[in-house]
């Protein structure tokens, strides 16, 4: 063999070895890709493309199947491998592009601080019980403040109810543990914003510039001291624009802003604990209604009797509340009709008492069920009072309950006589 022939043989061997190595690599990569496609499921989609080429004899057409990576499906698969909450949040991103989807999500039986937008997740998803507790606490708190405002207005001719309390009520009863509701934020922000507003009113008057400057200074101070509190800005604007608050002078910094805000914050803290302690969803309500039996009066009375002294005490409280409300309403209705003398009251007194009695019969099951629910709490109160009394005297539960009823009757008689 000549030298040139030997060189050709060596080149052929090297080419064949490299070719076999390339073929083995291609086969291994194709097997791995097929296994990954089997694992990925919907993460890949098959797209059919058409490849054409022309030869000297005829035009040939060949269909080639190409596997293309689908990023949207891969994202869904990734989300499925994570926690359920992340999957739910990822699925709801982009819901803001459809008004129907937003309405459907807003009425799904949950409450939120905000629905998901095109690029943001939903915020603070909570059960429907938060709606009920927030409504009840907001109504009760603002009703109490409104009653105090009416009493102060009548007796002292001073204003009390301020518009900023509407803002703080949204934070207190519509959210849970909002940082803006911390007592430091409430006191520092409200006092400083009110003080700045009164200073500007006294020394510079109310103009467009002074109003904007007072609010801007208040915001800067809140940020500097870590006391961001949105109702503080509302209190500042109210003091700048309303004369009745300006007449209070620097007292406005404490009364009524801080007093009412602190009361709302305390009520909001209780509301937040109730939301966390007793949550329920619409499904819970439906299942409870399905399992709920029709109330039977005899069974409820037996249940109340089995509650012991606590049940009797609770039933006495419910009866006292009902009859006090009924008698006061009857007396008010009689006097409002113009009957002031005894001769005019007599013919109307019997129908009024009959209406109170009829109402007591209609609400009897409600009072019994409420008494059963309050029985454990009333039993704890009786035990505590009894322990205190036993330190000096020997009283039993029945004696404590008896003298409590006597005191309640005497107090009611004194109230009616007055």
Outline the structure in words.
This protein has 17 helices and four strands. It has helices at residues 3-40, 71-81, 84-92, 99-106, 129-156, 164-174, 183-203, 208-225, 230-241, 243-246, 257-277, 282-291, 297-306, 309-336, 342-362, 364-390, 397-417; strands at residues 44-54, 59-69, 110-111, 126-127. Strands 1-2 form a two-stranded antiparallel sheet. A two-stranded antiparallel ribbon has the order 3-4. Helix 6 packs parallel to helix 11 (257-277). The longest helix is centred in the N-terminal third of the chain and has 38 residues, at 3-40.
Spell out the blueprint of helices and strands.
Blueprint: H1 3-40, E1 44-54, E2 59-69, H2 71-81, H3 84-92, H4 99-106, E3 110-111, E4 126-127, H5 129-156, H6 164-174, H7 183-203, H8 208-225, H9 230-241, H10 243-246, H11 257-277, H12 282-291, H13 297-306, H14 309-336, H15 342-362, H16 364-390, H17 397-417
Antiparallel strand pairs: 1-2, 3-4
Work out the number of β strands.
4
**Secondary-structure element string:** HEEHHHEEHHHHHHHHHHHHH
Q: If strands are numbered along the chain, what order do they take across the biggest sheet?
A: 1-2
Distance between the termini: 138 Å
Name the overall outline.
Answer: flat
Approximately how much helix is present in the residues? over 70%
In the predicted model, the low-confidence regions spanning at least 5 consecutive residues are: 33-84
Specify Rg, calculated over alpha carbons: 38 Å
- Please indicate the percent range of residues in DSSP E strands (runs of 2 or more): 5-15%
Number of helices: 17
Q: Structural class of the secondary elements?
A: mainly alpha
Overall pLDDT metric: 74
The major β-sheet equals:
2 strands, antiparallel
């Amino acid at each position: 063999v000549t030298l040139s022939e030997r060189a050709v043989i060596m080149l052929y061997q090297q080419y064949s070895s490299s070719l076999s190595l390339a073929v083995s690599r291609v086969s291994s990569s194709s097997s791995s890709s097929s296994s990954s496609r089997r694992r990925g499921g919907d993460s890949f989609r098959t797209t059919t493309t058409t490849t054409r080429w022309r030869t000297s004899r005829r035009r040939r057409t060949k269909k080639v199947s190409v596997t293309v990576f689908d990023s949207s499906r891969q994202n869904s698969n990734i989300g499925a491998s994570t926690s359920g909450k992340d999957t739910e949040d990822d699925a709801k991103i982009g819901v803001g592009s459809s008004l129907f989807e937003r309405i459907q999500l807003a009425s799904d039986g949950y409450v939120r601080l905000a629905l998901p937008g095109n690029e943001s997740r939903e915020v603070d998803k909570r059960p429907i019980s938060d709606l009920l507790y927030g409504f009840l606490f907001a109504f009760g708190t603002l009703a109490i403040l409104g009653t105090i405002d009416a009493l102060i207005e009548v007796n002292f001719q001073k204003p009390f109810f301020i518009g900023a309390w509407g803002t703080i009520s949204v934070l207190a009863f519509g959210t849970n543990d909002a940082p803006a509701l911390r007592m430091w934020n409430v006191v520092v922000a409200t006092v400083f914003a009110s003080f700045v507003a009164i200073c500007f009113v006294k020394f510079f008057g109310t103009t467009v510039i002074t109003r904007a400057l007072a609010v801007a200074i208040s915001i800067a101070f809140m940020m500097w001291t870590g006391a961001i509190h949105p109702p503080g800005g509302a209190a500042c604007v109210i003091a700048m624009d309303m004369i009745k608050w300006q007449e209070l002078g620097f007292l406005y910094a404490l009364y009524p802003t801080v007093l009412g805000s602190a009361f709302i914050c305390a009520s909001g803290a209780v509301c937040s604990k109730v939301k966390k302690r007793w949550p329920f969803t619409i499904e819970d309500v439906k299942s409870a209604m399905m399992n709920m039996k029709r109330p039977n009066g005899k069974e409820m009375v037996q249940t109340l009797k089995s509650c012991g002294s606590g049940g009797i005490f609770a039933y006495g409280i419910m009866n006292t509340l009902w009859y006090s409300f009924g008698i006061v309403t009857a007396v008010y209705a009689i006097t409002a009709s113009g009957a002031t003398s005894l001769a005019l009251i007599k013919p109307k007194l019997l129908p009024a008492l009959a209406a109170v009695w009829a109402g007591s019969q209609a609400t009897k099951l409600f009072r019994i069920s409420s008494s059963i629910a309050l029985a454990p709490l009333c039993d704890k109160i009786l035990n505590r009072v009894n322990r205190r009394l036993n330190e000096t005297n020997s009283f039993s539960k029945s004696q404590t309950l008896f003298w409590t009823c006597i005191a309640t009757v005497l107090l009611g008689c004194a109230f009616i006589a007055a």
